[in-house]
Amino acid sequence: METNTPRLLPLGDTAWTVEFGNRIDPALHGRVLGLLLEVLERTRTEETFAGIVDTVPTFRSLTVCYDPLKCDGERLGEALLSLARTTGAVQRDGRHWRLPVCFDSDFAPDLDDLAQTKGLTREAVIELLLATTFRVYMIAFMPGFPYMGGLPEALEMPRLKSPRKAVPARSFAIAGAMCAVYPWESPGGWRLLGRTPIPLFSARDEHSPSLLSSGDRVSWRAVERNEYTELEAAALAGNLQRASLLVEENPS
């Protein structure tokens, strides 16, 4: 049975995981983000946290990796659990992205089947997707792969019974109540509904190679094939500025 009491779990001998629950829930994610922000602040001010080398937020937990030569692992674990019990939830909206997606049939092999199963037209499915703002819960599975919540209940579908051996890079996909984009070609069982020309991971940006991060929001806009091709070429040439994809929240 789930409780509101966080648990401290060892992950090998150089990391701790603080777990807040066992479900995908905005409130739990808010607690994860609250602890994350507190930990990041203390790495700059307190010796106990000075050996932290990485933090990995998920739907319901925060993993903290540390260098055992630079800090006391047991002491760090105790401090993390104490913080988790007292730190409040944070609703961090992060950045708001508006990303292009093309729904042409060769990019969206599962779109018609989804529409038929749900008793909707292809156009109605696309309208629901475009009207939704998704929230990035975590980056996992592969570099830059965003697990996004907020898929309308009317579109929820389980993974494919037989995963594809190769999902094309930048495929826009859904599974269960989640939405994602495959940054790279890989095997996968999510249902493919479109494709974006925007790379989700770029080594050119050494400070932030992943386009999206936990707490970000993502809206989508439909593009025709010619615009898709132009944006893809610009992105691959390094001529597309990430800032151009951000939504201006408070235009003057």
Tell me the domain tally. 2
Alpha-beta classification: alpha+beta
Query: What is the CATH homology-level superfamily of the largest domain?
Result: Cyclophilin-like
Under CATH, the topology of the largest domain can be stated as Cyclophilin
What top-tier CATH class of the largest domain fits best?
A: Mainly Beta
Cα radius of gyration in angstroms: 20 Å
Mean pLDDT: 92
Number of helices: 5
Order of helices and strands: EEHEEHEHHEEEEEEEEH
Give the N-terminus to C-terminus distance in angstroms: 49 Å
Would you identify the regions where 5 or more consecutive residues have pLDDT less than 50? Answer: none
CATH architecture of the largest domain: Beta Barrel
Q: What is the makeup of the main sheet? A: 7 strands, mixed
Q: What shape does the CA trace take?
A: globular
Strand fraction: 25-35%
Helix proportion range: 10-25%
Helices, strands, pairings?
Blueprint: E1 7-10, E2 15-19, H1 26-42, E3 52-57, E4 61-66, H2 73-86, E5 96-101, H3 111-118, H4 122-130, E6 134-139, E7 146-149, E8 164-167, E9 171-175, E10 178-182, E11 186-188, E12 191-195, E13 217-222, H5 225-236
Parallel strand pairs: 5-13
Antiparallel strand pairs: 1-2, 2-4, 3-4, 6-7, 6-13, 7-10, 8-11, 9-10, 9-12
Polypeptide structure, described:
- The protein is an alpha+beta fold and 252 residues long.
- It folds into two domains: 80 residues, Gyrase A, domain 2 (2-Layer Sandwich), CATH 3.30.1360; 150 residues, Cyclophilin-like (Cyclophilin).
- The protein is 24% helix and 26% strand.
- It contains five helices and 13 strands.
- The strands form three sheets. A seven-stranded mixed β-sheet has the order 5-13-6-7-10-9-12. A four-stranded antiparallel β-sheet has the order 1-2-4-3, with helices on one face.
- It is globular, with a radius of gyration of 20 Å.
- The N and C termini lie far apart (49 Å).
- The model has no long low-confidence stretch (mean pLDDT 92).
